[in-house]
Amino acid sequence: MATTQQDINAWIKNTIDGNDVVLFMKGRKNMAQCGFSQRIDAVLQHLGINYKDVNVLEDASIRDGIKAYTNWPTIPQLYVKGEFIGGCDIVMEMFQSGELHKLIHEKGVPHTNHGTHA
Amino acid sequence: MPMEGSEIERLIKAKFPDATIQLVDTAGDKDHWQAHVVTAAFKGKSRVAQHQMVYEALGGRMGGVLHALALTTAVPSD
Q: Measured in whole angstroms, how far is the alpha carbon of residue B2 from the centre of its chain?
C-alpha cells in the first residue's frame, strides 16, 4: 500500500476525490471497532448512502497520514465530494439538525433514505 | 491517560481569554470529556475551523493524552 508521505497523500487524495462519500474509520462498514466510527457508520447507513470505508487500523501510515492531510487529530473523518466534513461531533450535530441531509442533497450524493429535514 | 478539567480550561482560556467553557467529565475518568466552547474568535469560521482552533489551543494533546473530547462550539450572541 502507501509508503512515502507523498505516496500516502496521493493515495488519500485519489480516494477522497474518487468516491462521493469516504469515511476514514476504525474498522469497516457494519463492523466499526470504535464507538465514534460506529456512530457515523450508523448515520450513513440510515441515510442509505453507499460510502467508501477506509479502515485506518490496517495501515498506520494512512492513520497518521490522514490526520496530517487535513490537520485533524482524530479518527473518524468524513469526506463528501472531496471535502472534509468533520469528525463524529460535527457529523452528529449536522445529522440531528438536518444539515447533513441538506448537504448530501446539494452535493447530489445518491441516498435512499431521508434524515431529519432541515 | 486522563487530563484535568482545569488544565483543559486553562489551555483554552490562554488562547481565547473571552471564552466561556462548559466541561463535563462524561465517564467520570477524566478521559472522556464533553466541552462546549463559546468565543467571539469563532465568528465567521466554519465548524471545522472552530474545532481546529480549540485543538490548536490544546497544543496537540487532542487524540493523544486527551483521548476523547466531544466538542461543540458557538459564537456569543451579541
A: 15
- Residue A117 pLDDT greater than 70, yes or no: no
Instruction: Note down the domain range covering A63.
Output: 5-105
Instruction: Verify whether the Cβ–Cβ distance A36 to B68 is below 8 Å.
Output: yes
Model pTM above 0.80:
yes
Judging contacts by C-beta atoms under 8 Å, the chain B residues touching residue A88 are: 70
What CATH homologous superfamily does B5-74 map to? BolA-like (3.30.300.90)
State the pLDDT at residue B67: 79
Q: Do B51 and A90 touch (CB under 8 A)?
A: yes
ipTM of the complex: 0.85
In chain B, where the domains are located? 5-74
Nearest chain A residue to B36 by CA: give it.
Answer: A89
- Examine residue A96 and state whether it is found in any structural domain, yes or no: yes
The pLDDT of residue B32: 87
B49 interfaces chain A, CB cutoff of 8 Å: no
- Per-residue pLDDT at A1 exceeds 70: no
B70 Cβ under 8 Å from any chain A Cβ? yes
What single string gives the DSSP state of each residue in A14-60?
Answer: HHHHHSSEEEEESEETTEESSHHHHHHHHHHHHTT---EEEEGGG-H
Residue A75: which of B33, A84, A66 has the closest Cα? Answer: A66
Domain count, chain A: 1
